[in-house]
Fold this protein.
Amino acid sequence: MQENYVINVENSINSGQVFLWKKNGVFWYGVNGQDVLRIDKNGIIKSYQNLKTDFFRKNDDIDIIIKSISRDKIVRNAVKKYHGLRILKQEPFQCLISFIVSSNSNIQKIKTSLENISRKFGTKIEFENQKFFLFPKSEKLAKVSINEIRKCGVGYRAEFIKEAANIIFSKEVDFESLKKSNYFEVKKNMCSIPGVGNKVADCIMLFSLNKLEAFPLDRWMIRILEKYYFNEFHLETKTITEKQYNILHEKIVNHFGPYAGYAQQFLFKMERENYQKKWL
DNA sequence: CCAAGGCCTGAATG
DNA sequence: ACATTCAGGCCTT
């Protein structure tokens, strides 16, 4: 019973959700918006800003969630093997920029780009005798030139980043109100931001806006579905159009239930580890 | 509505 | 060495 409340910090951080994290001794340190978190092996958090943050979503009833998503053998095995893997609750703006940067890229490069962005535009702080750069505020990224952003190695995504920052700073899209909105409403808003399509939107919604039915469908997840769920969701086409993405998402929620996003995280972790993909 | 092609960049592949 | 391909998509045509 109590077993389920264990958090596997290592697995949770190394599952493609966050990028600005590094391990130093027994602690993990990571930038989360205007805050830096220090985490021990039990998931106990110390915050630079002294903020209380439910980074590991301890408020979710993980017992119920695990039961809910365990609808087939594949998920049950992944849940067992990666016991303690959690969805992380990130600061939304950093999450947004992170996943705009992630598109058509890979973890190593995403990490480098985001580090560059933080170093160049973020505030330098010291926490436990270590130096960190906070993630820049939307206001800052909205004001700097596209060329300066481009120098961080983000390529054509530079203009998306600036425009996205603008939209957030102006509150044309407002994260706080979106946290209360339903999946489809949030999806519509997120996809209105340049550089944000269905997949990126689902990442932001799952990892920072509490939309646990969001199920990001990237190349890996498509492969996973083709490999293990051929009968449940037969995928015919190579390219996933908007319409097909939505149809597939509906089938997915029918199969995995309202916490489908958790199932996605376990499946993703499982398959990436099988292929020995590197994380942070 | 769908399919195809282009796009920054750097690590991996040939 | 050097050229191509490919990588956790999105946007335009």
